[in-house]
């Protein structure tokens, strides 16, 4: 390496040529190229390989602290499919006193019948419950390019010549948003930043200069270990993350019936009047209904096969399922599984057991649809 510090054009991490096992490695022969990317970004772009994220929690905290000390406009991106799982409280506390816009990405996966204005009102209400008073709330689909230009205009209106920091949880589409924005502004076809469907792509702070000399920064995603993405492999993740409009599945269940969501989650209807359960998950995720009395045996015999994901190759590392119990007290309540979707329980007075990988989380909310 030269004495001059070089950073990866894809992920922004400082480059080094001494240790191939450490972040930012690039062969010395590649340093003379006009656009240098690290070995990790090279593997992502050309082989779709996803090495582990090497940044520690302390690294993420340090970057968040850097953001909060800046006189800047903050764009907090959340995954509208996984709002709870992609909402990081640390960023809420960190951005106290700064102007913040909340952008719900992946709006294209919501059913077309959904009123997007109502979704944005719901997002604002949820943000305020979490202690954040957003300057603006928007929806977009970064990967499809839907409403990215509207979001960009809103950012330009609110930032008042300040730098812009794009922050959020891993895999919410921060880098994809910036790439799409740059393509629309410049007409260039190649991705300026490395993007991926998998958590933890951006490893350092990446700055893109704006017309007035201010900077637009893409920041590393903060990891939420409760998201389902951290329990399955790359191929399996494609099955549980929707990339097009969800088609809700409706099940009329009686007590003593169970729904399996592949082999990654299980919902038991324990007690209550017969009720509808409306499942909002990726269309490729197979949902299987059975009697609760048969569920344990079915899981043991068919997980990794009929009940997949996880696949057979992932069973050794997939955590055991842990039970969460709830009594649904209000009509039309969503049971939200971060990174997997949600199930709307139509009737009140229903008792359920939710089986999730040990370490995964789930929450209840009033139905958003």
From TrEMBL:
SUPFAM superfamilies: P-loop containing nucleoside triphosphate hydrolases. Pfam families: MMR_HSR1 (PF01926), YqeH-like_C (PF21516). The lineage of its organism: Bacteria, Bacillati, Bacillota, Bacilli, Bacillales. Residues 57-225 form the CP-type G domain. Gene3D superfamilies: P-loop containing nucleotide triphosphate hydrolases. InterPro entries: G_CP_dom (IPR030378), GTP-bd (IPR006073), GTP-bd_ribosome_bgen_YqeH (IPR019988), Mito_lipid_metab_GTPase (IPR050896), NOA1/YqeH-like_C (IPR048422), P-loop_NTPase (IPR027417). It comes from Salsuginibacillus halophilus. One of its GO terms (molecular function) is GTP binding. This is CP-type G domain-containing protein.
